[in-house]
Design a protein that fits this description.
Number of domains of chain B: 1
Number of helices of chain A: 3
Shape of chain A: elongated
Shape of chain B: globular
Order of helices and strands of chain A: HHH
Number of domains of chain A: 1
CATH architecture of chain B: Up-down Bundle
Strand content of chain A: under 5%
Strand content of chain B: under 5%
Number of strands of chain B: 0
Distance between the termini of chain A: 52 Å
Number of helices of chain B: 6
Number of strands of chain A: 0
CATH topology of chain A: Helix Hairpins
CATH class of chain B: Mainly Alpha
Helix content of chain B: over 70%
Distance between the termini of chain B: 65 Å
Structural class of chain A: mainly alpha
CATH superfamily of chain B: NADH-ubiquinone/plastoquinone oxidoreductase chain 6, subunit NuoJ
Radius of gyration of chain A: 17 Å
Oligomer: heterodimer
Largest sheet of chain B: none
C-alpha cells in the first residue's frame, strides 16, 4: 500500500470518467462520469494531505465535496429541463448551439 | 497486511463500480454501480487516516448526490427502448482508451516522480478538531465562497428546473 498504488488508482478513476464522457451518449452517464473525475481529484488531494502530514489537502477536498454537490444539483436540474424539452436523454439530440450547416 | 488486503478489496470495488457505471446500458444500474464506487472511495479516505473526509464523503456524495440522482432517474423513468441508441458503444470506448492512455501515463509518471513517502502523522491527524482548526484558521475565505456558490447553485437549479407555462406550445 504505497502512495504509487493510490496514485495509480486515482488516475484509473479519472481515465474511466473521461472514457465515459467520450464514449457514452446517455446524459445521466455523462453526468456521473464528470462526478467520478471530480472524485478522483478528491482522492489525489487526500493522498497529498496524507503525504505531507498536514490537513490542508483534506480541507481542499472537503470544499471540493461541496462543489461536487453544487454541480450535481445544477446538472440534474439541467437534465430534467432538457428531458422536458425533447423527451430524450440522447446527448446528440441537443444541438441548439451547433452551427447551422452541421446536419 | 490487513490494510493491504482492505486496499485491494476497496480498489476492486472502486474499479468495478466505475467500469459498470460506464458500461451498463440501463441508467439505474449505472447509478447503483456509481453508488458502489462512491462508497469504496469513502473507504479509501478512511485508509488514508482521514476520518472526517470519510464521513463527509458518505454523507454528501452517497447520501445526497447519488440518492438525488437515483430519485431523478426514477422520476424521469425512461423506458428501455427510449434510451439513446448506442450501437458502436464499445468501439467508441476502445477509441477513448487509446486516446486517454498516453495522458494517464504522463500524469502517473509526473505524480510518482515527486518524492513520496508517507509522512509521520502526529496525534489527531484527520480528526474533526484538526480539520476544524485548519478550516477556520487558513481556509475561511474559500469556505465562505463555497457557501455563496452553494446558494447560487440552489437558486439556479430551481430556476432551471421550473416549468415555464409559455414554453409548452
Amino acid at each position: 500500500m504505497t502512495p504509487d498504488h493510490f496514485f495509480l488508482l486515482a488516475i484509473l478513476l479519472f481515465s474511466i470518467g473521461l472514457i465515459g464522457i467520450v464514449s457514452r451518449r446517455n446524459l445521466f452517464v455523462v453526468y456521473m462520469s464528470i462526478e467520478l473525475m471530480l472524485s478522483s481529484v478528491n482522492l489525489v488531494l487526500a493522498i497529498f494531505s496524507r503525504l505531507h502530514g498536514d490537513m490542508h489537502g483534506s480541507v481542499i477536498a472537503l470544499l471540493l465535496i461541496a462543489v461536487i454537490a453544487a454541480e450535481a444539483a445544477l446538472f440534474l436540474a439541467m437534465i430534467v429541463h432538457l428531458y422536458r424539452l425533447k423527451r430524450t436523454l440522447d446527448s446528440d439530440a441537443f444541438r441548439l448551439l451547433a452551427q447551422k450547416d452541421s446536419k | 497486511m490487513l490494510e493491504n488486503s482492505i486496499f485491494v478489496l476497496l480498489a476492486l470495488f472502486l474499479l468495478l463500480g466505475s467500469a459498470g457505471m460506464v458500461g451498463f446500458k440501463q441508467t439505474l444500474f449505472s447509478a447503483i454501480s456509481f453508488m458502489m464506487a462512491m462508497l469504496a472511495l469513502a473507504g479509501m479516505f478512511a485508509l488514508l487516516d482521514n476520518s472526517f473526509l470519510f464521513l463527509a464523503q458518505i454523507m454528501v456524495s452517497v447520501g445526497a448526490v447519488v440518492v438525488l440522482s437515483l430519485l431523478v432517474i426514477v422520476s424521469v423513468n425512461v423506458k428501455e427502448e427510449n434510451l439513446p441508441k448506442e450501437p458502436a458503444k464499445f468501439r467508441w470506448m476502445l477509441f477513448a482508451v487509446v486516446l486517454v492512455a498516453p495522458l494517464a501515463i504522463v500524469i502517473y509518471k509526473a505524480l510518482t516522480y515527486m518524492p513520496h513517502t508517507w509522512a509521520k502523522t502526529g496525534e489527531g491527524y484527520g480528526s474533526l478538531k484538526m480539520m476544524g482548526m485548519t478550516l477556520f484558521k487558513d481556509w475561511v475565505l474559500p469556505f465562505e465562497i463555497v457557501s455563496v456558490l452553494l446558494l447560487a447553485a440552489m437558486v439556479g437549479a430551481i430556476v432551471i428546473a421550473r416549468k415555464e407555462p409559455s414554453n409548452d406550445a
